[in-house]
Design a protein that fits this description.
The complex is a heterodimer of chains A (about 130) and B (about 500). Chain A has helices at about 15-25, 50-60, 115-120; strands at about 1-10, 30-35, 40-45, 65-70, 75, 95, 100-105, 125. By secondary structure, chain A is an alpha+beta fold. Chain A has two domains: about 1-70, 2-Layer Sandwich (Alpha-Beta Plaits), CATH 3.30.70; about 70-130, Alpha-Beta Plaits. In chain A, the strands form three sheets. A four-stranded antiparallel sheet of chain A has the order 2-3-1-4, with helices on one face. A two-stranded antiparallel ribbon of chain A has the order 5-8. In chain A, strands 6-7 form a two-stranded antiparallel ribbon. Helix content of chain B is about 20%, strand content about 30%. In chain B, helix 2 runs antiparallel to helix 4 (about 275-280). Classes of the chains: A alpha+beta (about 130), B alpha+beta (about 500). The interface of A and B includes residues 82, 84, 86 and 100 of A.
Chain lengths: ~130, ~500
């Protein structure tokens, strides 16, 4: 399960992710993180059965946590199956099936959004 | 052995013609042999579905009361050509909206009309005795137009060079987004299904030949603009009735950082008259090679990396220097197949009969570059030859003194071999002084990724770099990466002296 964690770095710059790993013992996979002097946002991946534990632990440390059930989504009505997104995606989310139809492996998506702007048809939508 | 066109048309009429797509043809020839395939197959259908910028449509709006001779015309705020008769216009696919820029353009107007939507027409005129009206605003749907005739000056490129980017920065091009350091390859074209690739000698494709254009029956007008069949880059000018087109085979698009274009679905049926046609239509993706070109070089003569076939490109990755580089297509093979399949259905049902060209296309034609009377300014013409530079091992304070003394805002940083390794600006130094930390030396605060130019680069390209990276100076370097000048925003002032405005 992917979680989007937002935190402010105002008070003492707590190492939230490290703290949660130590407290819960869950090995968190950080897939994407943007952290500047005042705030941070991290997309993390945790095993489904430990998701609630991690979430509660992070929330208690002052972070806002949102569960992301979906990766990037494709508007099939608009897509023309060109494949411009295929080589742009760092995680190989997109591929062609045997009929040259574009298919998504949604669970690989880390919601980086790189595909959104390269789609000539604006057929890709981030779930945020 | 030869089959006449009349015989093929008779079979189409009787519903007995054997029609196959160009994708099916190679294995049929492999199985039955060339003679067997000639006997068996009557028509090969081709298809392509790609972004074709050189597309557009003629409209006739009918006369208003009182009438107007439209001089400037907008359709959903996209300007259309006003240099035709009173209520005629041509809208080009790539023309962008005055209000929505690259998010809406001529291609979207065409798409909206074909999808049954209403669009706003706005026009103005200076008024004449016979056409007194000066402005008009109204709403129109496709059915309200007397004619809506798609007429595309350059479609159906025989093949298209693949693109790669060897620079260390992302490029946004008409070939899509090219990742830095050869991070991906972008290509376009239907390969095995492409019309001209199945008739490279243009024996069957020429003026008057019936085609599938965006779901409607259309026709080849003749040679397309910039056609270069001698080099394997033939194009076609085509036309079709927009009123009969389908949104499935026509799609407006925006290439990020480039602009608006139109996806066009186009197919041509080829009558299998003789063994030459059989051989030509047996072409496979493996047989069609294109150049893989480095788009990192902003010049007409971009360097060739290597030849690559459509089979390699479509496989998903291409090997380059031992590394597998992923490919992206900009055209849709799935829709190209659907075009060839729909065309096959039309012919099997007898709704389209075939014709040979009423006028052939010259296959020896080769495209020429633009005739230019002057070369335009180059970096060497306006750059500063007085360079103040600094070594990477100097102290920050020394850099500050040099900036003051040299009355400049940019210091190129060089290493012990005299090669450019970074740049420091007055901003970097102010920042280092305002936040004193561990940084003592120039190398601690310099920017290591330096955008550079060269003496013979066109000033327009240098200006594009300044704008793109939001910077105000470019070190001018030679092939060994030695700094031989600086180009700053101030130097650009020299361009306004009139010397280059001839």
């Amino acid at each position: 399960m992917k979680l989007l964690v937002n935190f402010s770095r105002g008070k003492g710059r707590k190492p939230i992710i490290a703290q949660v790993v130590r407290d819960t013992g869950v090995l968190i996979n950080v897939e994407r993180a943007v952290i500047d002097s005042s705030e941070g946002e991290a997309l993390i991946d945790v095993p489904d059965d430990q998701c609630q534990l991690v979430r509660n632990s992070m929330t208690s440390l002052g972070a806002r946590v949102r569960m992301l059930e979906h990766g990037i989504s494709l508007n099939e009505r608009v897509c023309v199956d060109c494949g411009a997104c295929i080589s742009i995606c760092p995680n190989e989310v997109f591929s062609f099936n045997t009929d040259w139809k574009l298919v998504l492996t949604e669970e690989r998506c880390v919601l980086c959004g790189k595909c959104v702007e390269v789609c000539p048809r604006q057929a890709l939508i981030l779930p945020l | 052995m030869h089959k006449s066109l009349d015989l093929i048309n008779e079979r189409i009429h009787d519903g007995n013609a054997r029609v196959v797509t160009a994708e099916e043809m190679p294995s049929i020839v492999g199985e039955l042999g060339e003679r067997g395939a000639l006997k068996e197959v009557d028509v090969v259908t081709t298809g392509t579905f790609g972004a074709m910028c050189s597309s557009g449509a003629f409209f006739n709006f009918g006369h208003a009361d009182p009438p107007i001779r439209m001089e400037r015309i907008w359709l959903n705020n996209v300007e259309a050509y006003g240099g035709l008769a009173a209520v005629d216009t041509y809208i080009g696919a790539t023309q962008q909206s005055d209000t929505r820029q690259d998010q809406y353009g001529g291609a979207h107007v065409i798409e909206d009309l074909v999808a049954g939507k209403t669009i706003e027409l706005r026009a103005s005129s200076h008024g004449t005795d016979c056409y007194p009206r000066r402005t008009i605003t109204t709403e129109l749907a496709l059915e309200d137009l007397n004619q809506a005739i798609m007429c595309n000056p350059r479609n159906a490129y025989q093949r298209y060079n693949a693109a790669i980017n060897t620079t260390d920065r992302v490029l946004h091009t008409y070939m899509g987004t090219l990742l830095p350091n050869s991070g991906n390859i972008s290509f376009s074209g239907a390969g095995v299904l492409n019309p001209i690739s199945n008739d490279p000698k243009l024996r069957l494709i020429g003026s008057g030949v019936p085609i599938f254009l965006c779901g409607a029956p259309g026709m080849v007008i003749g040679e397309g603009t910039q056609s270069s069949p001698a080099g394997g880059f033939g194009t076609l000018m085509v036309t079709g009735d927009m009123k009969k087109m389908s949104p499935d085979y026509l799609a407006a698009a925006t290439m990020h950082g480039y602009g608006v274009t139109l996806y066009v679905g186009l197919g041509i049926p080829l009558p299998v008259l003789d063994l030459d046609v059989v051989r030509a239509t047996a072409v496979r993706d493996e047989d069609i090679a294109v150049d893989l070109i480095d788009y990192g070089v902003p010049s007409r003569n971009r360097p060739l990396i290597r030849k690559v076939s459509y089979a390699e490109l479509r496989s998903g990755s291409v090997e380059l220097n031992g590394e597998m580089i992923r490919t992206s297509s900009l055209s849709s093979f799935r829709r190209a197949r659907a075009v060839a399949q729909d065309l096959k259905d039309w012919i099997e049902k007898g709704t389209m009969s075939l014709a040979l060209p009423t006028r052939s296309i010259d296959t020896t034609r080769q495209v020429k570059p633009m005739h230019q009377i002057s070369k335009g300014p180059r970096v060497m013409d306006i750059m500063d030859r007085q360079i103040v530079s600094i070594s990477e091992s100097e102290e920050i304070k020394t850099a500050a003194q040099k900036l003051l003394k040299g009355e400049t805002n940019h210091l190129p940083v060089i290493n012990s071999e005299g090669m450019l390794v970074g740049i420091v600006t007055t901003f970097d130094i102010s920042k280092a002084v305002a936040n004193p930390g561990k940084a003592k030396l120039v190398r601690d605060i310099m920017k290591k990724k330096v955008v550079t130019t060269s003496v013979d680069e066109a000033v327009d390209i240098a200006v594009h770099k300044l704008e793109k990276f939001n910077i105000s100076a470019l070190p001018v370097v030679d092939a060994q990466h030695h700094v031989i000048g600086m180009l700053t925003a101030i130097n650009l002032g020299k361009l306004f002296g009139g010397r280059w405005l001839k």
